TrEMBL record:
It comes from Phasianus colchicus. Residues 1-10 have a biased composition (Basic and acidic residues). This is Exocyst complex component 3 like 1. One of its GO terms (biological process) is exocyst localization. Keywords: Exocytosis. PANTHER family: EXOCYST COMPLEX COMPONENT 3-LIKE PROTEIN, EXOCYST COMPLEX COMPONENT SEC6-RELATED. Belongs to the SEC6 family.
Length: 718
């Protein structure tokens, strides 16, 4: 069915606003037509058409009636809402009218409010005056109580005086607290003026308390009641401080007093002033010894009083013994540091070190049986710092060195050296050994200083020991730094006599071995220098005169060595042999000669064998084995086996370098670059560590640097 124009006009806004409605309607109509055509397509189905029409008509009627009912209910709800809105508007208008009326009424009462403000101010003044009037009787009695309290203090009735003082302070604080809460600051100033006398009472009481505390060590022995009274007053004040500090709203003037901390401060200042004030005293040994003895006596005595008596007079939380112990320790530490800043002699330095490191922690002072176990000196830390101990030890060693060792050794050497220029040899004992009092005196003096230092600490002993080693070395060196007298070697042997070797437990064996043989080796080396200049040379290859001359020089010195006891005699022989071997090898490696032929190389091998054999027979030792081993390298006929031979050589003498081996290969004169490269490469791949106890021989031998090729302009280098 088509719609009329009126229906179209009515539907048009809805279709424009809701296009989905039109689309849905079309879809519904299409679905209905499709269903109807499908159902009534067959003729037998047309019989039920009337029945279907009636059923659909009934259903449409039911739907329409429900829709009408729903719309009617909705319209009724809208009507009710409109009525409620209308009623609310009327009520709001009524309230606005009432508020306007109230506003005008308030404006009319503004003048009356100003009158009320003036009345409030008058009432506040009345309350303030009433509060003052209320406490006037108590305020008027303050001066009377003050006079009575002052009299109690003069008579040392401290507890009663303190009770009245607390009563007045409580009254003042209570009045000030009330005024503070009411904001009456003007009245507070008036009240404080009445209580100004409390400051004087507090100062007077405190002065008596601190006087008692400063005499506490004497009072606890003679009259502990007065000291206990002072402690009770201090604890009362401490509790008042704690209570007021918990109430953060109001803190009265003069609080917190902190009298417990003041007690500690006065006690510490008293201890320090009694014993450790900077007073001028004799810094030398006797005066310092008396001062340290007095400190030792007083510290032990007073700590015993604290432990046995004072501890019983104070609360446990005071830890009075720990406080006093720490005070003595700290004050003594500062006092000793002040003393150490003075220019002290060696006796004073030794005395201080002994007292600080030995006496102070011992049973004589802080480890006293009467103080144990409560006093634990280990918990206090060092009396003086390790750095200051080390500095003081060094000062002591320097003083000993200057005043004892250097000056005394110099005088001793001067006397000894006068004997060296005599025409006869030094004295001998009944066994034919050289003897001299010089080494005995030197060793005795050094050993005594070491033994004295061992009484203090191991570190001081080590410092004195090191100083003694240095001075012993200098002493042995000074004995060589002189114009050579006629019998220089015998006197030098006597100066390095048995006394020095007996001191091996005290001093270094290596030092004695090195220094006691240095002078003789220097002379031996000087005697060998003209002979070693000829080595190696073709003149040397042709005869044995060189080694014969060397043996004569060695024999001369060994005869003088025979007047020295063992182990000095053995050391001199060993050092002489090592010197001969090293200088012999050094001369061979100076690149003075290169073998030009096989025959000359054989001649070199024979000469090396004869020299080494002759020298070894003279010494009967093993240091010359290096010459024999070196000879094997030169005598090897097959250069291809050099790598193996050199490997054995460096295994036996691990301090030999590639420069040494290269020099020996140059001496052969027949080694190609390829063979040299193989040998040096093998050495680089097989580094040898120095075994323990091995005494180097090649490391002391320097090989001359290779000569640079000479070139002139663009010509080839020679």
């Amino acid at each position: 069915m088509g719609m009329s124009a009126k229906d179209e006009r009515c539907a048009s806004p809805t279709d424009e606003e809701w296009p989905e409605v039109e689309k849905a309607e079309k879809l519904a109509r299409g679905a209905a037509l499709k269903w109807a055509s499908g159902v009534f397509y067959r003729p037998e189905k047309l019989e039920g058409l009337g029945h279907y029409r009636n059923r659909e008509t009934q259903r449409n009627g039911s739907i329409q009636s429900r829709l009408k009912s729903t719309v009617q209910s909705y319209l009724e709800g809208v009507s009710t809402g409109l009525e409620q809105l209308r009623s609310a508007v009327q009520e709001v208008q009524s309230v606005c009218q009432d508020m306007g009326a109230a506003r005008w009424a308030l404006l009319d009462c503004a003048d009356r409010f100003q009158d009320l403000q003036q009345m409030r101010a008058l009432m506040a003044e009345h309350v303030q005056l009433a509060s003052v009037v209320q406490v006037l009787p108590q305020l008027f009695s303050v001066h009377e109580v003050f006079s009575h309290t002052l009299q109690l203090l003069r008579e040392q009735h401290l507890l009663e005086a303190h009770a009245e003082l607390m009563m007045m302070e409580h009254l003042r604080d209570d009045i000030l607290s009330q005024l503070h809460l009411r904001g009456l600051s003007n009245a507070q100033a008036t009240v404080l003026s009445y209580f100004s006398c409390l400051q004087e009472l507090n100062e007077s009481l405190a002065k008596q308390l601190w006087g008692i505390v400063s005499s506490s060590l004497q009072l606890v022995r003679e009259d502990p009641v007065l000291f206990v009274t002072a402690i009770r007053i201090i604890e009362r004040e401490e509790k008042i401080d704690d209570t007021l500090l918990l109430d953060a709203t109001f803190l009265p003037p003069g609080r917190p007093k902190g009298w417990r901390q003041k007690f500690y401060n006065v006690l510490q200042e008293t201890i320090t002033a009694a014993h450790f004030n900077a007073i001028r005293m004799d810094a030398e040994g006797p005066g310092l010894a008396r001062h340290l003895a007095a400190l030792q006596r007083d510290i032990v005595s007073e700590l015993r009083v604290v432990k046995d008596l004072m501890v019983q007079c104070v609360p446990a939380h005071y830890n009075i013994l720990s406080v006093c112990t720490a005070t003595y320790h700290r004050a003594l530490s500062g006092h000793l540091q002040d003393i150490l800043r003075e220019d002290l002699d060696k006796q004073a330095l030794f005395l201080l070190l002994e007292w600080v490191l030995r006496m102070y922690p011992s049973p004589e002072v802080m480890g006293h049986p009467d103080l144990l176990p409560e006093v634990d000196v280990s918990s206090l830390g060092p009396l003086i710092s390790p750095e200051l101990v080390d500095q003081t030890e060094r000062k002591y060693v320097e003083k000993v060195k200057v005043s004892d060792v250097l000056e005394w050794m110099q005088r001793t050497l001067e006397v000894e050296f006068k004997e060296w220029f005599r025409e006869e040899e030094p004295e001998m004992d009944h066994q034919g050994f050289f003897q001299s009092a010089l080494p005995v005196i030197v060793v005795q003096m050094l050993s005594e200083n070491i033994q004295v230092a061992s009484l203090i600490t191991d570190s001081l002993q080590q410092k004195v020991y090191n100083m003694a080693l240095e001075e012993l070395e200098a002493f042995l060196g000074r004995s060589k730094d002189r114009t050579v007298p006629k019998h220089y070697v015998p006197y030098l042997l006597a100066a390095g006599g048995q006394a020095l070797w007996d001191a091996v437990p005290l001093f270094s064996w290596e030092l004695l071995q090195e220094q006691c043989s240095a002078g003789h080796l220097m002379l031996l080396l000087c005697s060998f220098q003209p002979l070693y200049v000829q080595l190696p040379s073709r003149k040397w290859l042709s005869g044995s005169q060189l080694v014969n001359s060397m043996c004569e020089v060695i024999d001369k010195y060994t005869k003088e060595f025979s007047h020295v006891r063992k182990p000095a005699f053995t050391v001199l022989l060993m050092e002489s042999e090592l010197l001969v071997a090293s200088q012999y090898l050094r001369a061979l490696m100076q690149k003075k000669m290169v073998c030009k032929s096989k025959e000359e190389r054989g001649q070199l091998c024979d000469r090396l064998l004869q020299d080494a054999t002759q020298l070894r027979e003279l010494f009967c030792s093993l240091s010359l084995e290096a010459v024999f081993a070196l000879r094997e390298l030169i005598c090897l006929k097959d250069p291809g086996l050099l790598s193996l031979e050199v490997l054995g050589f460096i295994t036996k003498y691990p301090d030999v370098s590639d420069e040494h081996i290269s020099t020996l290969l140059d001496l052969r004169g027949d080694i190609s670059k390829d063979v040299r490269h193989v040998v040096l490469e093998m050495m680089a791949q097989n580094p040898q560590p120095l075994p323990e106890g091995y005494r180097p021989i090649f490391s002391t031998i320097l090989v001359p640097a290779p000569e640079l090729p000479f070139c002139l302009r663009k010509a080839k280098c020679a």
